[in-house]
Each structure stands twice: as structure tokens, then as C-alpha cells.
Amino acid sequence: MINLRARSSKDRVLGFEPRGCRFESCRAQKKFMRIEKILIPKEIAQVAKTLENKGFEAYLIGGCVRDLLISRKPKDWDITTNATPEQIATLFTNTFYENEYGTVGVVNDGVEDETLKVVEVTPYRLEGGYTDKRRPDSVVWSSKLEDDLKRRDFTINAIALTLSGKIVDLFDGQTDLKKKTIRTVGEPEARFNEDALRMLRAIRIAVELDFTIDPATQNAIATNAKHIKLMAGERIREEFIRIVMSPRPQIGLILSQKLGILKHIAPELEEGIGVAQNKAHSFDVFEHTLRTVEHAAKKGFSLETRLAALFHDIGKPATRRWSEEKKDWTFYGHDMMGAKMAAKIMARLAFPKKMIETVTTLVRWHMFFSDTEQITHSAVRRIVTRVGKEHIWDLMDVRTCDRIGTGRPKESPYRLRKYHSMVDEVMRDPLSVGMLKINGGRILEITKLVPGPSIGNILHVLLEEVLDDPTRNTEEYLEKRALELAALPESELAAVGEKAKQTKEKEEEMTLKEIRKKHWVS
Q1: Domain that residue 88 falls in
Q2: 62: helix, coil or strand?
């Protein structure tokens, strides 16, 4: 790691004006700083050093600088320079250059940390108009850092940093970092008309960092929200995923709804606003959804589980009916309806097919552990088959989040713990002769016995011996032992077989007892 040293150790951020500064207009405003004790990984520093050693400028830029300044580990690293893409590519052994914006990917071979494997190096550039609100009509390389900074999205992402510790901050990004504010570089409408995805990015950064969005930026988002529809589903998906995976996804969803973005991404979610539920719920469908997702984030659950929590009741508005008999609202079939709606939303956002299948399966079966009449061991085995062993605990997590989302404070009541125990019980490897590396057919073949109770007795004895010592579960040992057992008188074999069977049943009983003890159920 490279330690950037400041002139003084008294202050973390010190005003400093380096000699030979080209940005004369910025001196009076102290747009240049030096900072101390910022650690930059050696793999990143080496890329910048390579550029500098060849006479080029090199600045860390964007989210990595922002994160460094707030003591947050960067998830990716970007460098901007006055070198052209062709010049950048010739300086490094392993690079790729597959875009029209000049970004060259520099690959750090042999690095285990995924965040350090690729450094994106981009020339200073000027951009033409954005007629499609997605990408610039033209890109021109520049020799001036300020040209590159003024095209950036937000002030906190427009701070440049050299290896020597010099900061260039033309738009008061450090002030906004201290105020925890998201503000655009220049006029917000101009920035959002260049790339409409920046509106969703503002919300995403706000929830990831626990920042607020300044009023002018919020107003511009509300005014231009409809333009988000012009974005490719893949680009929206990536920002949406980061909102869902943030520590505060519920805040991101509320902001998206209030500023008019959500209705252009997943309008089906907004249909739950004001939709009252039955007596088991304290909140309308939308607030229940927010609280369900909030708990999934609090527990650190997977993306699939969080998406299932988000979509689990999306079918309720369409299936809500009043029951005169119950004097309450019913939502029959909302799980099936919700699975179809979730699949449609995720396909629209270009989610991978496998993830769509996983999430929709969790949505489809999220009601299983609500229906007490269905809960038998055979029913639990069927649901494990439908959902898959790899996702059955995700389903249980969705059920837990759903319960908390209703306003009930207790996460694991007895009934839910009982369901967890039953899943554990049916998921364990059963103590059966199927575990043995020999079967009845092979025993018949080597012992020359006729089919009958003797074969079962031999298998039970072999199972008992393997349970006692798993190293015995080899073909060689089992075949030799089967021949020895087959030579016993029939009455003696029946006795040892029955004893072995009873031992297995006791083992089964002890295993189930331990599982139920773990879940505090009987």
C-alpha cells in the first residue's frame, strides 16, 4: 500500500497550492489540497506510476477517490490521464480496449482481490451533445484535466487525486462529502439530459452512502424521470441491483417512488400503495413490501432472497377480493400471479434466466409455510423438491422477512422454528442401506442365497457396522463381511439383523432429537 503524506500531521485535509499550477482561476478558492494517510494499493499505484514515468499526468478519479476520502474501501479503480488510448495501451502488458469512450482496461495479472484485477484508464475528454439521453454524440480527447472533470455526474465523483497526495476539486465535492449531499456538477437538468441513468445513480449512491440528494437535484429528477425509460434494461438493472443490495433498499425504493422513477422501472410495485390488507397485516401492500425488504437487508440476505422479498406480494392488488363470509380481504392466488409478474419485471430489466427462475420460484411458493394444514413431512419433502435443496433456506428466509413485514416483532415464533426443524429433518442424509457401497443384488450374486429376509438382515448388520465405523464402507470389506454373515445359521442371522435394525432406529431417533433441540421445538 502507498501512504500519501501531507505537509502537516495536524489536520487530515490541508490547503496547499503546488508550484506551477495551471488552473490559476482556482487558486483563490483553494481547489488544490494535499491529504495525508490515504492508502492506495500498490497494484493501482503502479499503473499511475507507469503513466507518470513516461511523462503523462495520472489522477485517480470518480468513485474510488470519493470512497478514499470517506474511509470506505473502493469497489473499483479509475484513472484519468492526458495520454491517448493508443499511448496507454503501449505502456502495459495486458490491456483491452473495446469501447468508443477511450477507456483502456489494464489487467493486473495474479491478483486475488477482484477489485484490483482491472484498472480503467481513460483519457481526459470532451463530449458532444446527448441527443438520445444515453451516450455522447461525439468524444474528443483533451489535454486538460478540467475538461474531464466538468463532464462528470456529481461533485463528489469529480475529485481528482495524484499519488503525491494532490487533490483537484473544481466543484466543491469535498464540501458535499462533508455535508453528505449528492449534487450534480453544474446544472442538474443538463447532466440528466446527457445521461438519464444518472437520476437512478443519484438514488443508488444516496442509499449506499447514507447521503441526501440536494433539493435542486431532486427537482430535476422529478422533472425528467420519464426519460429513464430510454435506458437499456441492463443499465437500469445494475443500478437497481445495487439499490436492493444496499444497507437501506427501502429508502431507495421510497426515493424512487417519490421522485417518479419507480413507475418507469417497476410500476407494478406502486400498485400496492394504499391497498389495505387483511387483519393479519398492519400496513398496506407497499409499506409491507418495504418492511419485508428492509429486514432482508438487515439480515444480509442474498440478492435472490431480497428480490423475492420485494416481489413476494406484488400479485396482491390484482387478486384482492372482499369476503362477506370472513368480513375481510382475501388474496387467493396472489403467489402464482406474483410469480408471473416478477418474471415479467425481471425479463424487462434483462436479469439472467437462472436468476429469474430462482426468484419466481421463491415468490410462487412463499405461502407454503403460512398454511398450517399443508405442513407434514411429506409436504415438506415435496416443497424441497420444487424449490431445490440449494434454495429451500432462501424460501425460509423470505418467510421470516414476510412475517416481520406484517409488523410482528418476533422473528422466530414456535411455528416458524418448527418449520425450520422439519426442513432440517427431511434434508438430512437418511440412515438407510442406500448409504452402503453394496446392494441386495450384489449380495445375492456373491453369497448365492435365494431372495428373502436373510438379504435384508445382512444389509441391516452391514449398515450398523458402517455407522459405527464409516471406514468400513468399502466394497472389499462389505463383500467379505456379507459372505461371513451368509454362513451363519438362519435363526442367528435373523437375531443379529433385528438387533441391527433396532440400533438404526435408535440412531434415527437421536438424530431427530438433536435437530429439534437445535430449533427449540419438540
Answers
A1: 2-177
A2: coil
Comparing CA positions, the residue from 287, 307, 286 lying closest to residue 296 is: 307
d(CA 261, CA 255): 8
Same domain membership, residue 202 and residue 141: no
Per the document, the length of the chain is 522
pLDDT in tens, 252-302: 999 999 999 999 999 999 999 999 887 777 789 999 999 999 999 999 999
State pTM to two decimals.
Answer: 0.76
- Whether 432 is in a domain gets the answer no
Domain containing residue 312: CATH number: 1.10.3210
C-alpha 184/C-alpha 216 separation (Å) is 9
**Together in a domain, 205 and 318:** no
Of 36-40, 121-125, 160-164, 399-403, the one with minimum mean pLDDT is 36-40
Task: Look at residue 15 in the predicted model and tell me its pLDDT.
Answer: 30
Residue 433 within any structural domain of the chain: no
H-helix or E-strand containing 285? helix 285-298
Report for 248-257, 427-436, 455-464, 497-506: range of highest mean pLDDT: 248-257
pLDDT digit string, tens, across residues 491-504: 888 888 788 777 76
Task: Annotate 203-243 with DSSP letters as a single string.
Answer: HHHHHHHT-EE-HHHHHHHHHHGGGGGGS-HHHHHHHHHHH
Give a yes or no: residue 434 inside a domain: no
Question: What gap in Å lies between CA 411 and CA 283, rounded to an integer?
Answer: 17
* Final residue in a domain of this structure, among 242, 265, 288: 265
* Position 22, amino acid: R
Instruction: Evaluate whether 339 touches 313 at the Cβ level (below 8 Å).
Output: no
In a domain, 25, yes or no: yes
- The overall average pLDDT reported for the chain is 85
Domain boundary among 162, 177, 192: 177
